[in-house]
What does this fold into?
Amino acid sequence: MTTLEHLRIRGYRRLYDVDLSMKPFSVLIGTNGSGKTSFLEVLSLLSASCNAQMSARVSELGGIGDILTRDKATAIELKVSSPVQGQKPLDYELRLEPRGQGYWIQHEALTQARGHPAPFKHIEAENGNVRYFDTRVSKLAQPDWTLNPLETALSQVPKMFHEPEELRQTLAGPAFYASLNVGPRSPVRLPQQMRPASLPGSQGEDLVSCLYSLRENDPDRFEVLEDTLASAFPDFERLAFPPAAAGMLSMTWKDRNYSRSMYMHQLSEGTLRFLWLATLLGSRDLPPITLLDEPEVSLHPELQSLLVELMREASSRSQIIVATHSDRLVRFLTPEELLVVETEDGSARLTWADTMQIDDWLADYSLDELWRTRHLGALA
It folds into this structure.
């Protein structure tokens, strides 16, 4: 599994100067407006840049003028490092600068140290002059086709070795899951079109298909999921999938207290959200990076404890990055998993809790108590 080992961010909203080692499972906690969502946005921007969709994403975010650190930054600089088995990490750098009402890519590079004084260059681009390593001539060469200057070279030139393409696919593929819509007519409450699905969808639009496929094709994993639901809801018995119409499936939830099963539209918000999250995190087909924004919404503290265990288990298959402002969720984390986000002089500061001087405090207080009483920030 290709992951991110290190992330450097300069000039993006409150993330004026962030230099961070990454972990398989990390939970960002901070107050509203501290920079948690901006951190997830940076990864979504990198994803768009690797799918040749950066121009559209920058526009969605309000334009480069809106995402530059206010009154401080003149450019956005991003650098990621990704480990390569048996070799030195790959390093990718990107610098965007304003130009008129838009932006331009002032610098881009994909390099790898290989025991020589200078790193090996897969891609090098300066001021619009793009070169990539061409194995036909064994050196950097200019493309002989027209490139879109508003999109990255990483998304447009061939990668002559499989590791750079793996990195592009990793950066291109993060799945972002925010609050699940559980309104009366939301997709997760209605019968769904039967189709192949290994993930439940960002709004649960494929939840029924995903669970049905899991039951038919991977019964052992489906049994694990039902065991998880039984741990979360002691009266739960089983899931079933009655047909609703041609090509359409419903899903029912059997509770031992009732003679009749309940359909999706009859389940509580918390039950639906936990079922959606448990299905997502239990999938064998999670992307290399999974982003979760406030997954604890509507979940009882006991369900949050189970949720943390599910995220930990999933982090062996996907790099799990979570944003929250819930001290209840923090209660079930270890300091190694908690990333504290605070603002100082208008800029965000990100600190791993296990690097703070909190060992003596943890003898008497839990992590959530230290956060709630603001001791974590004071000890950074």
